[in-house]
């Protein structure tokens, strides 16, 4: 009984909050007067897209994953075009005009933002370099496994050097581990010029989020992808699967 009552209360509250959000979006659209609305999926895109549809502003949706998000699937019927990263995503949209274009990335991913004489990592450009990262939030599981694997990697490649972007958690542990093992390394929670890290590296070990995949495919660096197992609809697994299917990982 309590569960039914809670659900009965939540639905009107959700509809009321959504209505307020649409009104707020309409006010902003009237004030800003945009020429186009771009939606990247997720609940945060829905209300502005609905407002754009009401006011007749052209709508473009960007779907970065192989498995489209539920918000984009629902909004596709209002969009002028849906831009996908993957050919496999196209067939999942039953409504709307869909085109496969890839995902926009920063120009600095491909273009060298670092001066030729600079060496921000303090590493040897001639040695084999492994880039380890867990996406924008880092990945503690990847951090732990990689630190445990370093002795075996050293045995295979004695002069291996490592760029390890740990995320918020694991920086201190990684820094101490590499120093203790005498491994040439650059350890940081995050690094803004990720393109420079890609260009120095021979292999990347990473999660398989859409942006990461877009970047490594643009650069053309070999990759070992470890999907985040709790991602919505297991989309990181399918991103990695699709990339490996076409020989990209």
TrEMBL record:
GO terms for molecular function: hexosyltransferase activity. Gene3D superfamilies: Glycogen Phosphorylase B. The chain crosses the membrane at residues 12-30, 36-62. GO terms for biological process: carbohydrate derivative biosynthetic process; carbohydrate metabolic process. InterPro entries: Glyco_trans_28_C, GlycoTrans_28_N. Keywords: Glycosyltransferase, Membrane, Transferase, Transmembrane, Transmembrane helix. Residues 129-249 form the Glycosyl transferase family 28 C-terminal domain. Residues 16-82 form the Glycosyltransferase family 28 N-terminal domain. It comes from the Bacteria. This is UDP-N-acetylglucosamine--N-acetylmuramyl-(Pentapeptide) pyrophosphoryl-undecaprenol N-acetylglucosamine transferase. It comes from Candidatus Scalindua brodae.
């Amino acid at each position: 009984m309590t569960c039914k009552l809670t659900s009965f209360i939540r639905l009107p509250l959700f509809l009321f909050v959504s209505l307020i959000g649409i009104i707020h979006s309409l006010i902003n659209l009237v004030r800003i007067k945009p020429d186009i609305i771009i939606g990247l999926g997720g609940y945060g895109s829905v209300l502005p897209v609905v407002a754009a549809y009401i006011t007749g502003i052209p709508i473009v949706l960007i779907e970065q994953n192989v498995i489209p998000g539920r918000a984009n699937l629902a909004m596709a019927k209002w969009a002028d075009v849906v831009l996908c990263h993957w050919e496999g995503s196209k067939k999942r949209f039953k409504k709307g005009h869909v085109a496969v274009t890839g995902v926009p990335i920063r120009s600095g991913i491909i273009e060298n933002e670092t001066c030729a004489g600079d060496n921000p990592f303090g590493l040897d450009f001639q040695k084999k370099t492994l880039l380890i990262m867990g996406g924008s939030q880092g990945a503690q599981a990847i951090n732990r496994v990689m630190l445990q694997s370093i002795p075996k990697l050293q045995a295979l490649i004695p002069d291996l050097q490592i760029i390890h972007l740990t995320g918020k958690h694991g920086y201190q542990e990684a820094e101490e581990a590499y120093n203790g093992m005498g491994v040439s390394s650059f350890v940081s929670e995050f690094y803004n010029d990720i393109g420079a890290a890609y260009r120095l590296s021979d292999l990347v070990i990473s999660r398989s989020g859409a942006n990461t995949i877009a970047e490594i495919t643009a650069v053309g660096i070999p990759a070992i992808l470890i999907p985040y197992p709790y991602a919505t609809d297991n989309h990181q697994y399918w991103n990695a699967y699709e990339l490996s299917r076409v020989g990209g990982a």
